[in-house]
Design a protein that fits this description.
heterodimer; A: 273 residues; alpha/beta; Rossmann fold; six-stranded mixed β-sheet; 10 helices; 10 strands; B: 375 residues; Transcription Regulator spoIIAA; 2 domains; four-stranded mixed β-sheet; 4 strands; elongated
Chain lengths: 273, 375
């Protein structure tokens, strides 16, 4: 039996300043194990991109970290606090720290976009109505929504607009930690690039920590400081995109060295390669 | 260093405000108020951010708003000692108020009220035409199915029959058993005053077989299955499953509605019979224990009391009620649009209208059969 003497992929030194620390995570549904002893660290202020094949458990990992999915074993820390602590006060403090953008936006369908953005502000702060409205308007502009979108209901928005509105809501409290599930999937390339720029700006100016699931190789190149590859129930490889690219694993090689991977890495020569 | 805000506004000179510490969304109201303290005036404003340790979008918005206010009044406003990132953030959040619409226009309240009434009327009218169209479509498909031109999906019918009928046996049996007991008990108390306790059997027999057994079963099924139809089809519609069926070339009416209508009609027939039986059994228990009438004489009395026509009338009504419940549930399911709230409204409407129409039809049947001479 092989003994793993290497430090596990995905971990940082114990004394590193981490926003999220996952150790020995085991999750599953019924008889099916999704993660088996997964370790992962997200450093404070970095953008970590999570990639992996369909069904490798990317969304489940995110859902487990944010407490929507129970962990069977293991330990999750967010800014040094135990994220699996079920006490209401601990959970509330945690939820104040993060914003989450779901794949389809997950806007509340009975509220307008502006009201959606105001929900977290109403829940956690006692702000006057006019300040709240002005902040909601600021968020709308920030995510690049047109001026009339605030008064619309989610059912009246296109998919890309829903995503932007979802991001605006996730940003409502200026969270220190932002979880994004496929933020650019389904967006046209121009909007996707604008989305990347927006995320980069927020990260630079606010010192955000970002945990993002993406399949968009351009996004990985444009904004991710580190990339973690999920597979076989654990983190297969983790590091800068160039380090991960060297990793010897069939899925990783195919992912980064396929035509799309090459095109994203060398935008000018991609076509010729 | 704690959060602080210090104004230095010498008369005639440039107004300076120095911020220190962290300014985040929790303190944004204080910040906006403090920045609004000095009215814009010549020569201008300088905001000193050298002491700022942290700023989020909300803080940047408040600062940007102050700058806008001074600039709109025609005076200069500048940032001092801001790091490039903070300056970028402040420039990125546009603090101009009122440029973005946040709520739908409410308009004039009187006009809005009138508009709402008119809208409700038009919607109701459209609802009726939609319903007639839907009913016609279902009848055509049903006719096609009956003469063998369209496929009847037996698998779906059996599945629905299980959900509507078999799974409801417990609750409907219990409900009708209790109702039978109550009728027997209340009837016995009243009839005792006339020394006519023995006629309790007549009351139980006639009330349950012709009216109550059927009606209560139908109401129960409307609540259990009519609501399920509306919610299932409504969610499928939101999820674009109905569109998917159409593009594959399947008729949603044929696939979703016909099996439910057939299963509901047949199952209500069975459930009504079973429910009536449960009520009769309950009545039998009551007269046995309280009036000391043994089961065999109870059954003999029932045979004398219950007319065959009562039983047949009850059994004729049941499938009609089942049809109404299924049609209402499916129709409202197909009317779902937009959001989750609409599923809720339509489900409620499906149940309320199904029960209402069932009772209207029950009244109609009562008059109709009376006119035919079946009292």
């Amino acid at each position: 039996m092989a003994i793993d003497v290497q430090p596990r992929a995905g971990t940082l030194p114990d004394d590193a300043d981490v926003a999220v620390r996952v150790r020995g995570l085991v999750t599953g549904f019924g008889n099916q194990i999704v993660h088996n002893g997964l370790d992962l660290d997200v450093a404070r202020g970095e953008v970590l991109g999570l990639v992996g094949g369909s069904g490798s458990g990317k969304s489940v990992l995110m859902r487990t970290i944010i407490g929507l999915n129970p962990a069977r074993a293991g330990h999750i820390e967010i800014f040094g606090h135990d994220a699996l602590d079920p006490s209401p006060s601990a959970q509330r403090a945690l939820r104040r720290q993060w914003g989450v953008l779901f794949q389809e936006g997950a806007l509340f369908s009975g509220l307008t976009v502006a009201e959606n953005i105001e929900v977290p502000m109403r829940e956690f702060l006692a702000l006057p109505e006019d300040v709240m409205a002005a902040l909601a308007a600021t968020r709308l502009r920030q995510v690049g929504l047109p001026a009339d979108a605030g008064a619309k209901y989610p059912s009246e928005l296109s998919g890309g607009m829903k995503k932007r509105a979802g991001l605006a809501r996730a940003l409502a409290l200026d969270p220190a930690l932002l979880f994004l599930d496929e933020p650019t999937a389904g967006l046209d390339p121009i909007s996707a690039a604008a989305f990347d720029n927006l995320i980069r700006l927020l990260k630079d100016t606010l010192g955000l920590t970002l945990f993002l699931i993406t399949h968009d190789l351009d996004t990985l190149h444009a904004i991710c400081d580190r990339v973690a590859v999920l597979g076989e129930g654990r983190v297969l490889a983790c590091g800068t995109i160039d380090q991960v690219r060297q990793f010897d694993h069939p899925w990783v090689q195919e992912y980064f060295s396929g035509p799309r991977g090459r095109a994203a890495a060398h935008p000018a020569t991609g076509k010729a390669a | 260093m704690g959060t602080g805000i210090i104004w230095d506004a010498p008369a005639g000179g440039e107004a300076r405000v120095a911020l220190t510490g962290r300014w985040t969304i929790s303190e944004v109201t204080d910040l906006a108020d403090a920045l609004a303290r000095e009215a814009p005036r010549a020569p201008g404003l300088a905001i000193d951010l050298a002491g700022v340790e942290g700023l989020d979008t909300a803080g940047a918005w408040a600062i940007n708003r102050a700058i806008q206010r001074w600039e709109q009044a025609g005076f200069g406003a500048r940032l001092d000692g801001a790091s490039p990132d903070i300056a970028r953030l402040i420039a990125a959040v546009d603090g101009t108020p009122g440029a973005i619409k946040l709520r739908p226009d409410m308009g004039n309240p009187v006009v809005a009220r009138v508009e709402r009434i008119g809208k409700a009327l038009v919607l109701q009218g459209r609802n009726i035409t939609n319903f007639l169209g839907f009913l016609g479509h279902v009848l055509i498909v049903l006719g096609g199915t009956l003469i063998g031109r369209r496929r009847l999906r037996w698998h779906a019918v059996v599945h629905q029959a299980e959900a509507i009928g078999v799974n409801a046996l417990g609750i409907i049996g219990l409900l009708l058993f209790l109702v039978g007991l109550v009728i027997a008990q209340q009837g016995a108390v009243q009839l005792r005053q006339f020394g006519a306790e023995v006629f309790t059997v007549n009351l139980i027999g006639r009330a349950t077989t012709r009216e109550l057994g059927i009606l209560l079963t139908a109401i129960m099924v409307a609540g259990r299955s009519g609501s399920a139809f509306a919610a299932q089809i409504g969610s499928m519609k939101l999820n674009q499953e109905i569109d998917a069926l159409r593009t594959i070339g399947l008729d949603p009416i044929e696939v979703l509605v016909i099996p439910r209508v057939i299963a509901s009609s047949l199952m209500l027939l069975g459930l009504a019979f079973y429910g009536g039986l449960c009520a009769l059994v309950a009545g039998g228990f009551y007269v046995w224990s309280e009036l000391a009438m043994p089961p065999d004489s109870y059954i003999t009395r029932l045979q004398e009391v219950i007319l065959m026509s009562d039983f047949v009338i009850g059994m004729v009504k049941a499938p009609v009620f089942g049809f109404i419940i299924a049609i209402m549930g499916c129709f409202h399911g197909f009317q779902v649009t937009g959001n989750a709230e609409s599923v809720g409204t339509r489900t409620t409407q499906a149940v309320v209208e199904a029960i209402f129409v069932v009772i209207v039809f029950d009244a109609f049947f009562a008059f109709f059969f009376s006119l035919l001479g079946y009292n």
